Amino acid sequence: MRIGFIGLGRMGANMVRRLLRDQHEIVAYNRTAEKTKEIAGEGADAAFSIEELVSKLEKPRAVWIMVPAGDATEAQIAELLEHLEPGDTIIDGGNSNFHDDQRRHPKLKEQGIDYVDAGVSGGIWGLANGFCLMVGGEPAPVKRLEPVFLSLAPQDGYLHVGGPGAGHYVKMVHNGIEYGLMQAYAEGFEIMHASDYALDLAAISKLWNHGSVVRSWLLELAERAFAGDQDLTHLKGWVADSGEGRWTVQEAIDKDVPAPVITLSLLTRFRSRQPDSYGAKVLAALRNEFGGHAVKTE
Fold it and tell me: What is the pLDDT of residues 256-286, one digit of tens each?
């Protein structure tokens, strides 16, 4: 299948490579020309403008957008609409909010443009292992694009989960669950790191992936992270969030669903970014005031 691809970051470039490996024809564009030239050297057809990308596709065209959610995606869709025609399809593979999908879909449909949202999981390992795809949209354009989805995904790693926005909705909850899983592993390994025993955390990570109920790919990554320096002295405990955890918590609130683990894991990431917690200072001050408890000063 011939498809346009916009956005050649760490995931996007590997997605293009996986598609090329499966004999798809890719017209690739990236805002920085160097990345476009690099992927062209691996077999993609290079485009150095959106107009050129669209001109190199056959009707009905399909263009996959793999850029950061929000303003970047909105701008890319707006630019594409200057060149696409009725019958063409836009696939948003970034981590867009499902509310944006629900807003975009009817507007694009009025112009005769199909819109498909694809939640993509797999990170930098997707080239070798495949990308898990959670796809939302109307049945006809999704079915038309299945050869692309099946090439990107491992066996049983692609599913049309529902109508417009459903793909990003499922990916949002997926990432919220990921927050909770990662936080549980982090707390457990911190307890073991503080233990009086001389525990080999890399070896324990490997052990738990053989028959344990907590085995997972995250534990394989933990084994890699602990190898050589389980104190992780080269890292700061500063943890970002890309938005999906917040959206999952907000959806839980909107639907009156208790989600304490995901919520607390998100709040713990916020705490990691504070060099010193003002709230903790208030707690120390109050304990000192009412009970004369010892405090530490700067």
Answer: 999 999 999 999 999 999 988 889 898 889 8
The structure tokens listed for 135 are 């796809």
Out of 52, 74, 79, 178, the active site residue is: 178
Q: What number of helices (H) and strands (E) belong to the chain?
A: 14, 8
Residue-wise DSSP of 240-273: ---SHHHHHHHHHHHTT---HHHHHHHHHHHHHT
How far is the C-alpha of 57 from the C-alpha of 81, rounded, in Å? 14
Rounded Cα distance between 228 and 204, Å, is: 14
Cβ atoms of residues 263 and 293 within 8 Å: no
Q: Which of 158, 122, 156 is nearest to 142 (CA)?
A: 158
DSSP-derived pairing of the beta strands 89-92 and 62-65? parallel
pLDDT per residue over 69-111, tens digit each? Answer: 999 999 999 999 999 999 999 999 999 999 999 999 999 999 9
Residue 178 annotated among the catalytic residues of the structure: yes
